[in-house]
Design goal:
By secondary structure, this protein is an alpha/beta fold. Helix content is 49%, strand content 15%. It contains nine helices and seven strands.
């Protein structure tokens, strides 16, 4: 198994991507610590993992609160003694749709402040353990908005670019201590909407302006905007996350992994 006897922490573990990664990590042998602001959803993911024979624990955590993150890492270390993998899959509801001339300062700043704060706090907290261990992997999430030039996602695009830059700097900081940092960059995942992802609320205004339901808007993007004529699945993202977190990918760090089905070409 890819992650046999590893300890993995997943922030945003109640969300569509985070919960799918948790299930795959547990299947691959990791003990998984799930953290999010939704205890009921976390408990459901834990039940799924345990029913499949895996080990998982849930903790309510707000990754925008420094004390919450530090407390949670201390609890994980008290129970497990180490942290081998940490994934930040936290999603934040924010405004998409309005262009520059319509966009308020508050709506522009919110995703930038929230995503950078969450990723910094979680990465710093787990990095302390990884530096002591001289091993570990920090995983972040981005989207093609980090590089695409378009309208309606100015603040979110800048937030994704910041997360990718943060990941590169994490790789530089952690590398001398034997730890790695990698950013996963999938495009929109239609499956996530069916699982109650915050993306449905985020995409609603853009779909309204396009005069289409969200599903039709994403289908049109897949057909005209990707080389594979489709968008990624939750399974594809989670399976790759498990691989890149494993020792089989031990030479990879500082990378932004393209999981966009070809909406971006590196």
């Amino acid at each position: 198994m890819l992650l046999q006897d590893k300890v993995a922490v997943i922030y945003g573990g109640s969300g569509a991507i985070g919960s799918q990664c948790a299930r795959v990590f547990a299947r691959e042998g990791a003990t998984v610590f799930l953290a999010a602001r939704h205890p009921d959803r976390l408990a459901a993911v834990v039940r799924d993992i345990e029913a499949a024979g895996g080990k998982a624990y849930a903790h309510p955590v707000d990754t925008l609160i420094e004390h919450d993150v530090e407390r949670h890492v201390a609890e994980v270390l008290d129970r497990a003694g180490r942290i081998d993998v940490a994934l930040n899959a936290v999603g934040m509801v924010h405004v998409q749709g309005p262009g520059l001339l319509e966009l308020s300062l508050a709506d522009f700043e919110l995703p930038i402040a929230s995503y950078t704060r969450s990723n910094f706090l979680t990465a710093r907290a787990v990095a302390r353990a990884m530096v002591r261990q001289r091993a570990g992997v920090v995983l972040t999430l981005s989207t093609p908005g980090s590089r695409l030039a378009g309208t309606g996602f100015l603040g979110f695009g800048m937030a994704n670019a910041a997360v990718e830059t943060l990941t590169r700097h994490l790789a530089a900081e952690l590398g001398p201590h034997g730890a790695r940092a990698i950013c996963l960059r999938p495009d929109a995942i239609p499956q996530a909407l069916a699982q109650g992802s915050h993306a449905a609320e985020v995409f609603a205004e853009s779909a309204r302006r396009a005069g289409q339901p969200i599903a039709a808007m994403l289908a049109a993007h897949a057909e005209s905007g990707t080389l594979l004529k489709r968008l990624p699945t939750l399974a594809e993202v989670a399976e790759f996350a498990a691989f890149v977190a494993s020792d089989r990918a031990s030479a990879m760090t500082g990378a932004i992994v393209n999981l966009t089905c070809g909406s971006l070409v590196d």
